[in-house]
Amino acid sequence: MTKASDLFIQCLEEEGVEYIFGVPGEENLDMLDSLSRSTKIKLILTRHEQGAGFMAATYGRHTGKTGVCMATLGPGATNFVTAAAYAQLGGMPILMVTGQKPIKKSKQGRFQILDVVGMMKPITKFTHQLASADNIPSRVREAIRLAEEEKPGATHIEFPEDIAEEKTDSVPLKPSHTRRPNADKKSIRAAVTALEQAKSPVLVIGAGANRTLTSRMLLQFIEKTGIPFLTTQLGKGVIDERHPKFLGCAALSAGDFVHRAVEAADLILNIGHDVIEKPPFFMHPGGTPVIHISPKTAEVDPVYFPEIEVIGDIANAVWQMKEDIVPNGGWQFDHMLAFRKAEVEHTESLSGDARFPIFPPYLVQEIRNAMPDDGIICLDNGVYKIWFARGYTAYRPNTVLLDNALATMGAGLPSAMMSSMVYPDRKVLAICGDGGFMMNSQEMETAVRLKLNMTVLILNDSSYGMIRWKQANMGFKDFGLTYGNPDFVKYAESYGAIGHRVTSSEHLTDVLAHCLATPGVHLIDCPVDYTENDQILNIDIKRMSKEL
Alpha-carbon distance 57 to 45, whole Å? Predict the structure, then answer.
């Protein structure tokens, strides 16, 4: 007979779990004791459950395997809610394990007890309270199967402490080998026919296309057909953005050069995108027809109701289309590519502005210059995300980690920490606003304790800059969004990290080079000048693209 908590860990080992991130509580102590004897799974103790959840989600994002995190009941479980939503909306596989008081005999009345399973139900793919040790193997297998199945997302198991103490003769289940179904040939033929009959088709690459083999198949399709492509924010890097047919990234909601390029198309091939991402284009009745290519049928929305759906493994669907299609010699792409050329020229006219505090277009270009091809930037959430989505050229998949699904603050630092753990030989840079950084800044201690090699760049404007930008755009007075900050250099040093403060635009170049070349956890306090955000992003770009 096996103790239930030992069996639970054995089941996770059978699934190939490498890490459990978390903040254990007394209701997790049996599981923690079992974990202490595991030779295959390492505990990563964090300073907040949010940090654990964001790290687990980023592990899932990089590897495709389920990231596992643990917390206690009550406040520990409620602190997982944001991370659960982050993973669920962003398509990242995670399993959250939370403790609970004994369910067969009450010890402490209702102290700390919440309906955690009920709380998790709307924001997960699967949530379950273990009521018997015998069921552990099937419940763990089901949670991980659903977490990884398209569309990946969040799952949750509640593990009460009296169940953790039980004895059972159950044994772990082996994961099954599955392959995603291939798209129906008739749907492929319908999509190819529509493409061949179009005059100016365009490809839109979304988060779901960021899968093994898909970028390769897409590149082959683009090379054969010459059809231009753009990306959503979560699709950045699926194809090298230095490609001559790249049209840009849909960072703003509307009115950018890239949106004008989409408007010039008479057919949109939408690959791996769903309406949880901020839409890269808006459909309207009688407008441009859309072909939806995804493992899942389209979720219909007032701005999204595609005419043709190709449902199945995306890489295989794109390969089938590539084999079938005969490129149309009459396709016209010059107008679309002219919008991209104008966007690049506009960006170049701004990126040389070496004012201080640092001008966002200059910052984006300096970071691109400093990062190697396989370097990973992990963005928190703020107005700088728009500048990086538009202006930072991604060369490889999963080298620009940003969140345009839940768009939560506080995830930038933990996602960079996880990136550094998964890829210890690659350069990793977290880019955070001062507001977002302070939401999980305590994880600096975790990063130092784990001896990670990474840099945290704080864009310091002493305010919630994204909301100030929106406030200005709506014509409201500047109110209620500014605050003071700690001395970030001293703050970093208090954790045992290395602090730096940018004092000029030239200094930024030197500091970035030094931090990326020097081991350890670095923090850079970088003052930014956001005064022209409204003028450039809301007025100039829309005017220039409309004139073109």
Answer: 15
